[in-house]
Amino acid sequence: MSRAEELQLSSIPNFDPRLAPIAGVDSHLPAVPIDAMTPDALRKRFASPPIWTPDVLRDRGVVDREPADASVLIPIVMREQPMVLLTQRTTRMNKHSGQVAFPGGKADPGDGGPDGTALRETTEEVGIEHQYVEVLGHLNTYVTVTAFNVTPVVALVHPGFTLTPNPDEVADVFEVPLQFLLDPRHHERHFMEWQGLRREWYAMPYQDGVTERYIWGATAGMLRNFYRFMMA
To answer: pLDDT per position in the chain (232 positions), as tens?
Structure first.
């Protein structure tokens, strides 16, 4: 096993991210103002993006291979309160099984770029057709522990779509308020030391009725970067 492979959390016996020590919660940081999350405000933000610095650009312990291009959609559903649509991956998936994720995946040659990949994958995974999606722009590329160069594509999703989750990939689809995700009081910083190596990651647990939606790892890292983009 290489040093990079040792850093994969999946290699730790009985690993549960919920039980990992918390290094801190960023309650001292301000939340993104509510009026900055309206559709018009988001359009303006991405039309003239600020100079900003992401908090996380890559997972520690990326596997030892050439990264492949991928995209995810950060879908902001235009409800009375803007909501972010997320999926729970099935336990049958080879990578990140059972985890909370954005719709997305590996780029295909015919996609025509990150937007095309994100839109195609969103349709394939949850059934949202392109005509309901208004792409706003991109966040910085994020390199996952499984060696994918992921472009987060931020988009507004207009009402009227019908969800048809792909049962081979998606166990559940749910929404979390954008206001919750862009409030650092909900950004936990976790760590784990294993065989002399240390991994650190963000988590944003959300209580959805009786169900805890445990958002962590790359998904939480991209949301943290979204926060930094909005506050720059």
So the answer is: 333 333 456 556 667 888 888 999 999 999 999 999 999 999 999 999 999 999 987 775 555 667 799 999 999 999 999 999 999 988 664 454 468 999 999 999 999 999 999 999 999 999 999 999 999 999 999 988 778 899 999 999 999 999 999 999 999 999 999 999 999 999 999 988 766 677 889 999 999 999 999 999 999 999 999 999 999 9
CB 102 within 8 A of CB 219: yes
Could you tell me the CA-to-CA distances from 89 to 67, 97, 113, 132, 174 in Å, in that order? 22, 6, 24, 23, 12
Instruction: List Cα–Cα distances, 160 to 60, 128, 180, 198, 200, in angstroms.
Output: 40, 10, 24, 45, 39
Neighbours of 70 (CB within 10 A): 23
Q: Which residue has the tokens 């030391």?
A: 193
Compute the half-sphere exposure of residue 144: CA atoms within 13 Å on the CB side of its CA.
23
The answer to whether 215 touches 100, Cβ cutoff 8 Å, is yes
Map tokens 């522990």 to a residue. Answer: 145
**CB within 8 Å of 9: residues ≥ 6 apart:** 15, 17, 145, 192, 194, 199
Reported as type and span, the H/E element at residue 117 is helix 114-126
25 C-beta neighbours (distance < 10 Å), count: 14
Nearest CA to 77 out of 23, 155, 148 is that of: 155
